Amino acid sequence: MFSFFKRKPKEPAPVPEQPASAPVAPAPTPATSFSTSPAPAADTPSAVTPSPITPAAITPPVQDVQTEAPQPAEIVAAPAPAPEQKRSWLSRLKAGLAKTSSNLTTLFIGARIDDDLYDELEAALLTSDAGVEATLFLLDALKKKVKEEKLTEAVQVKAALKTLLIDLLTPLQKPLVLGQYQPLVMMIAGVNGAGKTTTIGKLAKHMQTHQQSVVLAAGDTFRAAAREQLTIWGERNDVTVIAQESGDPAAVAFDAVASAKARGTDVVMVDTAGRLPTQLHLMEELKKIKRVIAKGMDGAPQEVLLIIDGNTGQNALAQVKAFDDALQLTGLVITKLDGTAKGGVLAAIAKTRPVPVYFIGIGEQIEDLQPFNAQEFVDALLN
Q1: What are the start-end ranges of the E strands in 244-349?
Q2: Residue 339: pLDDT band with limits 50, 70, 90
Q3: One domain, residues 239 and 298
Q4: 226, containing H or E segment
Q5: N or C: which end of the chain has fewer CB within 10 A?
Q6: Same structural domain for residues 149 and 117?
Q7: What angle do CA 364, 83, 96 make, to 5 degrees?
Q8: Whether residue 163 sits in one domain with residue 298
Q9: Rounded to an integer, what distance in angstroms lies between the CA atom of residue 196 and that of residue 193?
Q10: pTM value?
């Protein structure tokens, strides 16, 4: 259960109670049911879509008096999938990574542990977009492990490689913390075609299943279709979208933060125009958006996420480096791992620029976006 922040009453009381001006909040409804009561209008210059916001209650649920302050909750999945859904997710993830999995696993079938095996493994890792640095790191560690543990069977070497990959990727496995800020402001960046706007819609649904109210900011003012697409996701999830037909995307972001503060909204997600990191003037605009958001709320944005197309290979690593240098990324979302994605780029990211991977996506449905789990990912590659 998430902990929410509330305004302190004017006079202290020995037992926590609601402020005199606010009615006592009912016990929270299950994550699958949402409030449809309209939110108060925000005093912002931007146009707001007619879909009402679905605010999560900001009053803590009724519970026994406690002496310790409640802790922020972590978003893990929304909600926990049924066993058959989990099996379906893992099977589709494995199917998406099938090419790399085949290249790696077939090496160990009846193989002798010699230099030829290591050479073939090196080629397979490089082909999977693991990159030179991560590939050499894994090979050196594997040779050392084989020698120290006196491994003599190919299946043992495969298991050793699996362990090394899990150890390498586990630092990227980090949950997205909710309830720590009011509101939590998330700035979403990425190149054109990475699935940025669609991912924002999926994340909004994930937030709602964790009883978080959401407002979306259509900061991609260069592409009219982007605003329309985000509005559709807003209507689908029953959340407000702050948008302007034209103008400064930084102003849209500022208005969205102001609206969220006025409404008591839990999460603000700011969409930005897709751009290549080589477009320096556009990268400067991203920096401006971040500065303007900070003026609207101290410490914001608390999360700066980069959406990456899983099929872009080593170019994904270049994107991470460029956007991280410009914006100081706090997390990544890897999308489209359901096609020709090779998957090895996560090893390159882990070794070269270890920005946490919050989510990975394998399709267009809401449930196709799931928190990154290093064990599951490596299982899909090497089982």
Answers
A1: 267-272, 303-309, 331-335
A2: low
A3: yes
A4: helix 224-237
A5: C
A6: yes
A7: 40
A8: no
A9: 7
A10: 0.77
The CATH number of whichever domain residue 251 belongs to comes to: 3.40.50.300
User: Among 171, 193, 228, where does a domain finish?
Assistant: 171
- The boundaries of the domain holding residue 116 are 86-171
The token pair that represents 104 in the structure block = 């790696």
Q: How many angstroms separate the CA atoms of 276 and 72, rounded?
A: 35
The answer on 352 and 207 residing in a single domain is: yes
Task: Give the pLDDT score at 81.
Answer: 60
Using an 8 Å Cβ cutoff, are 272 and 220 in contact? yes
> Which residue numbers belong to the known binding site?
190-197, 271-275, 335-338
Annotated binding site for GTP: 190-197, 271-275, 335-338
Please tell me whether residues 120 and 215 are part of one structural domain: no
Length in residues, the chain: 383
**93 vs 230 pLDDT, higher one:** 93
How far apart (Å, rounded) are the C-alpha atoms in residues 154 and 322? 39
In a domain, 232, yes or no: yes
Tens of pLDDT along 19-70?
A: 444 444 444 433 333 333 333 333 433 443 333 333 333 333 334 434 344 4
- Look-up: residue for tokens 């605010």? 55
Instruction: Report d(CA 204, CA 270) in Å as an integer.
Output: 11
Cβ distance 158 to 382 under 8 Å?
Answer: yes
**Of 122, 141, 171, which residue constitutes the final position of a domain?**
171
Bridge-based pairing of strands 357-361 and 369-371 is antiparallel
**Is residue 53 a contact partner of residue 241, using CB atoms and an 8 Å limit?**
no
Question: Mean per-residue pLDDT for 174-189?
Answer: 94
